[in-house]
Every structure is written in C-alpha cells, then in structure tokens.
C-alpha cells in the first residue's frame, strides 16, 4: 500500500478482522500483523474512530493518543517485564529497559543520562558529518548509494566505535550482534526458539568481548568516549559498579541505538523524498538545524519505524476511565501502545494528514514517553538529523523507480538495502 495516499483508503479492516477472527483467531491475528506493517494508517484511523481499544486473543491494541500516553506513563501498571525473558539472558543480567521502578532502573538510568548529555551533540554531529560525507563522496561517482549499507549503518557503527567507545572486533560483528538480539527482543512476539537461540549466542559473544576489553580500557585511562567516561565515573566507592554492570550498560548503548537509528533514517528519508516540495524545503532549512529537524521528525511521523511499544499489564486496570471508551484491561494482558497511531490522533495532532514541519514537539513519541523514554535521545537524535542533513545536501538526491528504489528487508522489519540516486539522472527508468 502506498505511502502518500495510504490514509485515504476506505475502511473495512475491523469488519474483516472480526470475520477472520471468528473463523480462526490465528487468521485474525495474521491479518492484523500484516496490516500493522503495510496498512497501518487506515487500520489505525478506523480503530481510533470505531474501536480505540481493541482486545484480541493475543494482545490489546491501544490507538488514541491519550490512552497510549496513559499506558506509557504508568510503568507500575503497564510494565516492561515482557522484555526481561528475552533481553536479560542474552546480555547476562538485568538492564534498565527490563526493570520497572526498581533501584536498578533509577540508579542506572540516572547515571547513563549523565553519560549521554545534550552537551555531546556538537561533537556527535561533527563525527557524523565527516563519516557521512566520506561515504557520500565515495558513492558519488557511481550516481547512486545504498543508503542503508553504505551510509546509515557505517555512520552508526562509527558512532558506536568512536563516541560510545565500543567498536567490537569490527563493524560487521557489531551489527550482527545487535541485529540478532534486537530481532528476538522486538520482533519475536511468537517466541520462535531459533530466533531466541541466535540472540543468546550473539549475546554471549558480545558480553565475552566486552568483559575482555574492560581491563584494557581501564589501563588506557578511558579516553573521551562514553565507555571511558563511565569507567572513570564508577571508580570504587559510592558509585562502584562491578564489571557486569559496566559491560551490560555499554551493550545497552549499541542495542538501544543501532537498529532504531538505521530503521528510522530509512523510513523518514523515503517520506521526505516522496514529497518534492518537502524535500526542497528541507534542503533550504539545512543551515538551521532546529528548523531542519522539524522536517525530519514530521517525516518520521508519516512512517515511524517503531509502530507499537509493548507492555504487560500487572493488575486489572480501567483504561481511559471516565470516557466512553473506558475498558478493563485484565492483569497479564500484553498491551501494544500504538505510538504510530497516537501521532495521527487529531485530538493531539491537528490536521494529522498535513505535513507541517513546524509542529510543536510534544505529541512526538519517536523516543518513547514516560519512565522508559529513551536515555540516548540527545546524541541519538543528533545522529539521525546530521546524517540526513548531509544526505539531502547532495545534489540530485532522489528515489529510484521500483524495484531498484524499494526498501529491501531480507528477513524481518529491519531494512537491509535502500538505493537512492545521486547527481544528474543518467539512467533509463530512474525517477
Ligand atoms: C545514543 C543512542 C541511543 C541509546 C544509547 C539508546 C538507549 C535506550 C535505552 C537504554 C532505552 C531504555 C530506557 C529505559 O528503559 O528507561 C531506550 C528507550 C527507547 N529508545 Fe533509545 N537509544 C538511542 C537512540 C534511539 C533512537 C535513534 C531511537 C528512535 C528514533 C530510540 C527510540 C527509543 C524508544 C522508542 C524507547 C522507549 C522504549 C520503551 O518504552 O519500551 N532510541 N533507548
């Protein structure tokens, strides 16, 4: 289903889902999960209007802004315990994302916020600008670039290496670890044992590697990267963390960042380039990053990489109490908070189908919301903004006609290739 017109498609999803679910609940769920990838805008528009809180045998889907926000704000009721069984065994222990309002979450999130401060943004932008420009220069002669493999992934693994201080043995291995673990954590809702086993194997390799480099990093005095900063901060004393806590939090830098950043850049660049007038306006805005950023976060709203955030309901809870959609969510329910839908809810985002680069940032949920909101938001947002800024500054940047220009995903939701044209169009069939 295509892009700019997606939201104009007629409804009928709810009726089709219910008819299929009555025949066979699994058939209904298969329909829903397909639409979540390809027809999410009309599906969510219909659900917001007709069934804002949809109960299915496998999960409850929440689609209005106010209710998504209620789910994400109330960490004591809508918990992250569902992540723990997949992520903790892979990295060998608990981490802030798998622990609700515990001392561990409070302490480690607080410290990691200090480790990833907004003051790092200029330095992160400079690192990204140099890396992106070199990648774009190398591709320019060929008149095209695979934005995923030649730009987004190399920029992100360079940020891991030089800013986080976690280069791994090589960029390919770093990317392989991250992909295997995040596939299990975010995509494997059905609990496929092979995906889980691949994540455990990758996690073991990664944690052995990180423990192996700890002493070396201590001996070199830490350096200017986040890993070094962390090692200097948690010296024995009040803040002493053992090696496991340090290694797990460094692993969290890679896992929170890489796939989210690559996926988000892929989605938003496509949305920018689908709208020539928006593309032109974004190019004109490049001298002022604040104005430019309005374009990219709005483009991401048109196709967020992360469509839903999952939680498990800890006790029976009346969601949307006092409204006509008031619903009891029973303890144990898997709740999918549809952030992609919330950002299209006209009660929070006026005229959601209009592309407006000057929207206020508060209804944006790209970096989560509430107690688990992204700890890496400042450097993470800077990586996305600067990479895309360097890209749109290239003359002749354009989508290629399908199949060349399609976003290719070899296995799951993570993009593997996305070819873009650069320079003067000189091939038949190019857009
Ligand atoms: C420096 C880069 C990044 C780091 C180190 C990082 C790390 C993390 C961590 C550790 C969490 C869990 C926080 C908690 O449990 O309290 C988190 C949450 C989150 N991050 Fe990031 N992240 C980065 C970049 C990004 C990017 C680029 C995106 C997407 C555009 C993103 C989207 C999110 C979202 C949506 C959540 C909320 C998850 C939830 O509530 O279940 N992050 N991030």
TrEMBL record:
Could you identify this protein by its name?
Answer: Cytochrome P450
Query: Highest taxon of the source?
Result: Bacteria
The organism's lineage is: Bacteria, Bacillati, Actinomycetota, Actinomycetes, Streptosporangiales
Q: Which family does it belong to?
A: Belongs to the cytochrome P450 family.
Task: List the Pfam families.
Answer: p450
UniProt keywords, alphabetically? Heme, Iron, Metal-binding, Monooxygenase, Oxidoreductase
């Amino acid at each position: 289903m295509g892009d700019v017109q997606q939201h104009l498609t007629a409804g009928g999803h709810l009726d089709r889902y219910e008819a299929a679910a009555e025949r066979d609940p699994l058939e209904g769920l298969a329909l829903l999960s397909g639409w979540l990838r390809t027809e999410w805008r009309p599906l969510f528009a219909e659900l917001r209007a007709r069934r804002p809180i949809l109960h299915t045998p496998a999960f409850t889907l929440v689609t209005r802004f106010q209710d998504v926000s209620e789910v994400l704000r109330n960490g004591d009721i809508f918990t992250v315990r569902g992540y723990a069984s997949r992520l903790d065994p892979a990295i060998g222990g608990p981490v802030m994302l798998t622990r609700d309002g515990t001392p561990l979450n409070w302490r480690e999130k607080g410290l990691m916020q200090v480790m990833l401060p907004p003051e790092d943004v200029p330095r992160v932008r400079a690192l990204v600008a140099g890396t992106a420009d070199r990648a774009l220069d190398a591709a320019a002669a060929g008149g095209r670039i695979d934005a995923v493999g030649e730009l987004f992934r190399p920029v992100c693994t360079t940020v891991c290496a030089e800013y986080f201080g976690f280069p791994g043995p090589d960029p390919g291995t770093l990317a392989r670890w991250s992909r295997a673990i995040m596939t299990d954590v975010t995509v494997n809702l059905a609990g496929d044992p092979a995906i889980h086993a691949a994540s455990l194997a990758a996690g073991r390799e990664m944690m052995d590697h990180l423990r192996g480099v700890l002493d070396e990093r201590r001996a070199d005095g830490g350096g200017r990267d986040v890993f070094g900063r962390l090692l200097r901060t948690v010296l024995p004393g009040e803040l002493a963390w053992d090696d496991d806590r340090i290694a797990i939090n460094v692993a969290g830098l890679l896992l929170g960042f890489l796939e989210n950043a690559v996926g988000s850049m892929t989605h938003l660049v496509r949305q920018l380039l689908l709208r020539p007038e928006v593309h032109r306006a974004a190019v004109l805005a490049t001298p002022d990053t604040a104005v430019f950023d309005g374009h990219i976060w709005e483009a991401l709203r048109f196709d967020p990489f992360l469509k839903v955030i999952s939680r498990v309901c800890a006790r029976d809870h009346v969601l949307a109490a006092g409204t006509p959609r008031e619903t009891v969510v029973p303890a144990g329910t898997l709740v999918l908070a549809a952030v992609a839908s919330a950002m299209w809810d006209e009660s929070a985002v006026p005229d959601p189908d209009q592309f407006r680069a000057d929207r206020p940032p508060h209804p944006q949920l790209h970096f989560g919301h509430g107690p688990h909101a992204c700890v890496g938001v400042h450097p993470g947002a800077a990586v996305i903004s600067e990479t895309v800024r360097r890209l749109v500054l290239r003359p002749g940047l354009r989508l290629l006609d399908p199949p060349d220009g399609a976003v290719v995903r070899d296995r799951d939701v993570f993009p593997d290739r996305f070819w873009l044209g650069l320079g003067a169009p000189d091939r038949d069939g190019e857009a």
